[in-house]
């Protein structure tokens, strides 16, 4: 999901905040607290190794779906059935199953509606009054009616007999309908255009809750702000829509000859061979063809945790080839209305999609799906396997940013399947971090602006924010952009540039992605992996940046000539004032304009609150400055320099 925070905060906002932030006092630095041992709550288990990788008996359950749905365009109603094959790979017998009914967020009496403040929220239906939520027609288990209970956005199904452990299979069929909200918590919706409605459909079928080795059943209700935690499997969908609609969806289209004309199929074949964007359904052909009846589009996606789709008579569609490191190919696709067209807007969407997918595939892990589709809807930005929804009015740098961000989510959490409902930072923060690298790489930095990390310290470490590890439903909505996206993204940048170095960081981070691809990691699995692969002790950083609200505040305390004369050298004293230590980089400038850089490892702060070192030089020191590259978010830059 995308929060509208360019560089997440503007310079004006930063400096306005800075004036109030220097007054915030850091707790006195306590090195025994910062570096105390026993950070990890448990040692390795059979399912999760202390090294950060899945244990030798790691397991997870799976869910395969056959989905059938029909769209009634006139009243925005969907009617469908979900046939679910659920495999219990756990060592536990299961007497009941839990499913998520996320559309129930839009029921009038939902918990999500109850927590929307009078001032409004981006979550929920933006005050729209309609009969929202699922209407369940039937629930069957192995072909027979079964007892079920719906509680807000969850359904519990009581099984007639326990589902066996280690491979027991349950077959469910649920028939349902619901009215789509026009604005569905910024994740789905219905958008009017001059050539017809655009339907962007997500959270549109009952989905299995995750049963794991950490919490058992994960059944937190869907309140709107927090996202999802889902099982992997194969999802197939038959989507019936008005004949004049074009449908794009997760995965591979299985029946293109039934839904596209011969000429359109030829264009698709051309796009599969082209690095340049090829028009599939151009503006000139909108409104042509049969305007009555229905048509069924069939899609399938494998190794996925969800399925989303979009349908409209207003879609212009274009595409281009995606080149993957293994030599395989995928397809970048864009679907948008004429109002969004143009080289300064969605006309470059496929170019952006292709570039993002190719970058992340080369850097971290190869893109696993046959297509990557960007859809212009009314969402600020929302991600699903193989398809994303971005706002139809986005253009230029904004369209690149949201496209790159949403497709970055393919890696977190579509490939690395963390629990978004609890740990939003493990998908949004990781994604914000990798977006910085991809934007720098795109088109020779066309939209890249290097952030001055030194200026954001007072903002990002403000006492007004909760801790990163607080879940999105448990923090102020205004805090989510900082705590789920920006602060963890900045933290990973600090870890890469200041603490580990790019080579060591990239190796560890890539190892994490490969270890946990299509699996369910926790924060501890990430922390363990980064430490084990890098070989560095990092508990002080996890403890301070993620678990607590510790502040970085280092200072130049004193600069003295040795024996009263700089010809004998200089002794420089730096101090760690804030509770979060950092490696310390000191730039010493001499009277003749030459400089010397001294790098102090974080270990100097393991038993000290201040540290004195000597510069062996015969030249007069005129300036001493901490963090000369502006890569550390110190809350008080005023004490970072000494002038002679």
TrEMBL record:
InterPro entries for the chain: Peptidase_M1_dom, Peptidase_M4/M1_CTD_sf
Keywords recorded for this protein, A-Z: Signal
First and last residue of the signal peptide: 1-23
Domain Peptidase M1 membrane alanine aminopeptidase: 353-545
Molecular function terms from GO: metallopeptidase activity; zinc ion binding
Name of the protein in its database record: Peptidase M1 membrane alanine aminopeptidase domain-containing protein
